């Protein structure tokens, strides 16, 4: 067991535990905070894979921006456990069945995953470093990259238009 | 035990460095409170605290003691866990940034080269930026957990202010990064070591960054989150004792760190102006590294003084003025700065013919 | 509306010029002003160590004076109490016994002499009224106490130290204030 393995297990437990916390906690603010912890744990995994850029962008975009907006909304809505709508029995049952189906699909998908033994390279691959990532994005994938930026622009314009409407 | 086959020297070295950096930033933050009161007093034709020790030099200790001794009040209707977590988060995010800052060159100890930097990661600035974007949580969680309308309003104000100014800050940094071509703070400092400080190439970027740094630290003229006269006391209204102290303290740590970042990015970091640092290393050895640290601190202290100077000069912005300045003023300006820088950089890259 | 004074200044509501809109120039001007104040000499007087110069007619706390031989001058005539507009002074007279000549100058003296410092307005009428030059307003000030009762100064609090035994304290209590003629 070397230090990256230790870190891997710590991060994994943290990620899974806080992900469970997102689903299980009654208080929505706690859910958001657990989600933030999950993002951190996943960023830790990225760093272990030497994908530093991905790790920090994950934190900036998700933990630093999107989750703040979530928190904004939840804090202003003042959700309490009492006002949570009671779901009917049938809905719960349907959810249970759907969850089982998803589980089956995942098992089926992972059954053959063993064959691909190309495990992630710990701290050796350097595709996640910002220079290589930039080269890849702006050479091989320049068109998809630009198209996605146009998508974002249109989303922004749309938001402005909706906001302008009296 | 295979488990223990780490590079122990490295771990000890980093542990010592981390503790020095943390203690130093806390002490400096402590003396910032003293400095703030002194600067305020001098600007207002007073002399400020001068009773505790010579020139009031022990005043921060007295203040800290007072805060520790005060009664701690946790409101009944508050969310206790988050209420306690708020100041902790504020302090944590304030301190975390110091990990990537190069405090000086390197020391030679027992044949090992010890760089005066906790972690030289290749995404240095982005890390700073990420941690800064997390600074919102301390404010928001504290304000919400107090279960007080005024705190919540102040927290929302503070959070929206921080988010708004982060954008302009990021854009002004992008222009800078186009010139440096790297994100590692140490490399950026080394590029500036011949007197080519980035501020000469990015004056507009520097002004934008500086204004945004003021806003991120909740300093006047952007101290709306703690607008005493409008929102009672701001997001930390329900806080007392050292929890309040942590919030106030985090602000000063933030101020210190943002001054360090500013000095590193725009003023050559630990580089000693008009002196060839590499030459200095040959003559002085380890003392040269120390001189560099002192130089960085001198730059930082001047920056902190300017922060305070502004605070005691400029009145607070109104909220709509703040948002207008952020979204309609700084962001377009930063974008223009970015485009111009990109054009110039591209032309230069192609030897001035397109 | 007609203005009451000629100092009325209408509020300037012109739209901001470009220079004002970018704030920076105005802020720089403001900062120049504050930095000037930063280096200005501070008018602060560090009180317990330094003291402000008193006016020669400053009226502070009262003292009951003694003569050159250290005898109390007060004869308990009550003129000060009558003169007092705030009715802060009360006293009780007593007759001097044999063998007390070194204590009291006159045959009658004040056995009890009280001034309520919370009522006193420090007008100085008592010292003007005193025929024996006994009551004086000194340059001592800023008394502080925890209870109101302690602000009623007894004779012990008011009496000046003996000039023969304690010339230094005597001079200090007297101050260099000129008594109005």
UniProtKB/TrEMBL annotation, chain A:
Keyword match Membrane: yes
Enzyme nomenclature, EC number: 7.1.1.-
Domain of life: Bacteria
Group of enzyme by EC: translocase
Catalysis: reaction(s): a quinone + NADH + 5 H(+)(in) = a quinol + NAD(+) + 4 H(+)(out)
Family assignment from sequence similarity: Belongs to the complex I subunit 6 family.
Membrane topology recorded in Swiss-Prot or TrEMBL: Multi-pass membrane protein
One Pfam family linked to the record: Oxidored_q3
UniProt protein name: NADH-quinone oxidoreductase subunit J
Transmembrane segments: 6-24, 29-49, 55-78, 90-110, 141-162
Keywords: Cell membrane, Membrane, NAD, Quinone, Transmembrane, Transmembrane helix
Gene Ontology MF annotations: NADH dehydrogenase (ubiquinone) activity; quinone binding
Localisation per UniProt entry: Cell membrane
InterPro entries: NADH_UbQ/plastoQ_OxRdtase_su6
Role of this protein: NDH-1 shuttles electrons from NADH, via FMN and iron-sulfur (Fe-S) centers, to quinones in the respiratory chain. Couples the redox reaction to proton translocation (for every two electrons transferred, four hydrogen ions are translocated across the cytoplasmic membrane), and thus conserves the redox energy in a proton gradient.
GO CC list: plasma membrane
TrEMBL record, chain B:
Transmembrane segments: 6-31, 81-104, 124-146, 167-185, 197-215, 244-267, 287-310, 330-349
E.C. designation(s): 7.1.1.-
Subunit-level organization: NDH-1 is composed of 14 different subunits. Subunits NuoA, H, J, K, L, M, N constitute the membrane sector of the complex.
Gene that this polypeptide is encoded by: nuoH
Protein name according to UniProt: NADH-quinone oxidoreductase subunit H
Annotated catalysed reactions: a quinone + NADH + 5 H(+)(in) = a quinol + NAD(+) + 4 H(+)(out)
Organism of origin: Pinibacter aurantiacus
Top-level division of the source organism's lineage: Bacteria
Pfam families cross-referenced by the UniProt entry: NADHdh (PF00146)
Keyword terms: Cell membrane, Membrane, NAD, Oxidoreductase, Quinone, Translocase, Transmembrane, Transmembrane helix, Ubiquinone
HAMAP family given in the database record: NDH1_NuoH
EC class (word): translocase
Gene Ontology biological process terms from the UniProt entry: aerobic respiration
Entry-linked InterPro entries: NADH_UbQ_OxRdtase_su1/FPO, NADH_UbQ_OxRdtase_su1_CS
From TrEMBL, chain C:
Single annotated GO MF: 4 iron, 4 sulfur cluster binding
Enzyme Commission (EC) number: 7.1.1.-
Gene this chain is encoded by: nuoI
Enzyme class: translocase
UniProt keyword 4Fe-4S present: yes
Binding site for [4Fe-4S] cluster 2: 84, 120, 123, 126
Localization in the cell: Cell membrane
Organism: Pinibacter aurantiacus
One GO term (biological process): aerobic respiration
Cofactors (names): [4Fe-4S] cluster
PROSITE patterns given in the database record: 4FE4S_FER_1 (PS00198), 4FE4S_FER_2 (PS51379)
Alphabetized UniProt keyword annotations: 4Fe-4S, Cell membrane, Iron, Iron-sulfur, Membrane, Metal-binding, NAD, Oxidoreductase, Quinone, Repeat, Translocase, Ubiquinone
Record: residues binding [4Fe-4S] cluster 1: 74, 77, 80, 130
Membrane topology annotation: Peripheral membrane protein
Reactions this protein catalyses: a quinone + NADH + 5 H(+)(in) = a quinol + NAD(+) + 4 H(+)(out)
Database matches in PANTHER family: NADH DEHYDROGENASE [UBIQUINONE] IRON-SULFUR PROTEIN 8, MITOCHONDRIAL (PTHR10849:SF20), NADH DEHYDROGENASE UBIQUINONE IRON-SULFUR PROTEIN 8, MITOCHONDRIAL (PTHR10849)
Entry annotated with the keyword 4Fe-4S: yes
Gene Ontology cellular component terms for the protein in this record: plasma membrane
NCBIfam families, per the entry: NuoI (TIGR01971), PRK05888.1-4 (NF004538)
Function: NDH-1 shuttles electrons from NADH, via FMN and iron-sulfur (Fe-S) centers, to quinones in the respiratory chain. The immediate electron acceptor for the enzyme in this species is believed to be ubiquinone. Couples the redox reaction to proton translocation (for every two electrons transferred, four hydrogen ions are translocated across the cytoplasmic membrane), and thus conserves the redox energy in a proton gradient.
Family: Belongs to the complex I 23 kDa subunit family.
Subunit-level organization: NDH-1 is composed of 14 different subunits. Subunits NuoA, H, J, K, L, M, N constitute the membrane sector of the complex.
Pfam families referenced in this protein's UniProt entry, alphabetically: Fer4_7 (PF12838)
Domain 4Fe-4S ferredoxin-type per the UniProt entry, residue ranges: 65-94, 111-140
Binding note for cofactor: Binds 2 [4Fe-4S] clusters per subunit.
Protein name: NADH-quinone oxidoreductase subunit I
């Amino acid at each position: 067991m070397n230090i990256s393995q230790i870190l891997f297990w710590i991060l994994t437990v943290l990620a899974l535990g806080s992900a469970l916390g997102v689903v299980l906690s009654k208080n929505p603010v706690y859910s958001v905070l657990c989600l933030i912890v999950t993002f951190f744990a996943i960023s830790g995994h990225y760093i272990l894979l030497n994908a530093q850029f991905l790790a920090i962008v994950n934190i900036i975009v998700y933990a630093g921006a999107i989750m703040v907006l979530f928190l904004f909304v939840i804090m202003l809505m003042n959700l309490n456990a009492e006002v949570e709508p009671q779901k009917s029995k049938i809905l719960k049952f349907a959810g249970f069945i759907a969850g089982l189906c998803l589980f089956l699909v995942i098992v089926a998908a992972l059954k053959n995953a063993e064959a691909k033994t190309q495990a992630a390279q710990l701290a050796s691959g350097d595709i996640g470093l910002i220079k290589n990532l930039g080269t890849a994005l702006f050479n091989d994938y320049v068109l998809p990259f630009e198209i996605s930026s146009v998508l974002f622009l249109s989303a922004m314009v749309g938001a402005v238009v909706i906001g302008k409407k009296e | 035990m295979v488990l223990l086959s780490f590079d122990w020297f490295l771990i000890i070295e980093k542990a010592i460095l981390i503790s020095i950096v943390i203690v130093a930033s806390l002490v400096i933050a402590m003396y910032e409170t003293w400095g703030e009161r002194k600067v305020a007093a001098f600007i207002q034709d007073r002399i400020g605290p001068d009773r505790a020790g010579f020139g009031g030099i022990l005043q921060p200790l007295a203040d800290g003691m007072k805060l520790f001794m005060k009664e701690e009040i946790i409101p009944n209707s508050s969310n206790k866990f988050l209420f306690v977590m708020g100041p902790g988060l504020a302090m944590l995010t304030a301190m975390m940034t110091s990990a990537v800052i190069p405090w000086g060159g390197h020391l030679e100890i027992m044949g090992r080269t010890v760089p005066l930097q906790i972690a030289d990661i290749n995404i240095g600035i982005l890390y700073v930026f990420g941690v800064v974007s997390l600074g919102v949580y301390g404010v928001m969680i504290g304000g919400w957990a107090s279960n007080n309308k005024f705190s919540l309003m102040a927290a929302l104000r503070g959070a929206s202010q921080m988010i708004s100014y982060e954008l302009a800050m990021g854009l002004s940094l992008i222009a800078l990064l186009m010139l440096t071509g790297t994100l590692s703070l140490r490399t950026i400092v080394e590029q500036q070591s011949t007197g080519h400080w980035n501020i000469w190439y990015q004056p507009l970027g520097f002004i934008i960054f500086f204004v945004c740094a003021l806003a991120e630290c909740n300093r006047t003229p952007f101290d709306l989150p703690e607008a005493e006269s409008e929102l009672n006391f701001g997001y930390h209204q329900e806080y007392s004792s050292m929890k309040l102290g942590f919030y106030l303290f985090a602000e000063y740590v933030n101020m210190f760190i943002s001054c360090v970042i500013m000095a590193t990015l725009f003023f050559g970091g630990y580089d000693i102006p008009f002196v060839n640092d590499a030459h200095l290393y040959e003559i002085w050895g380890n003392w040269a590294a120390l001189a560099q640290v002192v130089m960085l601190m001198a730059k930082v202290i001047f920056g902190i003084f300017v922060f305070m100077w502004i605070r005691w000069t400029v009145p607070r912005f109104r909220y709509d003025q703040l948002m207008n300045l952020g979204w309609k003023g700084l962001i377009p300006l930063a974008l223009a700065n970015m485009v111009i820088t990109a054009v110039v950089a591209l032309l230069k890259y192609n030897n001035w013919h397109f | 509306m007609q203005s009451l004074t000629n100092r009325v200044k209408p509020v300037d509501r012109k739209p901001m010029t470009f220079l004002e809109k970018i704030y920076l120039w105005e802020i720089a001007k403001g900062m120049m002003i504050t930095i000037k104040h930063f280096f200005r000499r501070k008018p602060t007087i560090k009180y317990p160590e330094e003291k402000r110069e008193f006016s020669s007619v400053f009226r502070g706390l009262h003292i009951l004076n003694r003569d050159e031989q250290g005898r109390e001058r007060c004869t308990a005539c009550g003129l000060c109490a009558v003169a007092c507009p705030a009715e802060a002074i009360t006293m009780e007279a007593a007759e001097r016994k044999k063998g007390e000549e070194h204590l009291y100058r006159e045959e009658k003296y004040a056995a009890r002499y009280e001034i309520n410092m919370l009522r006193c307005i420090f007008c100085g009428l008592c010292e003007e009224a005193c025929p024996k030059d006994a009551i004086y307003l000194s340059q001592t000030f800023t008394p502080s106490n925890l209870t109101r009762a302690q602000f009623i100064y007894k004779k012990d609090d008011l009496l000046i130290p003996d000039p023969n035994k304690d010339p230094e304290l005597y001079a200090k209590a007297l101050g260099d204030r000129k008594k109005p003629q």
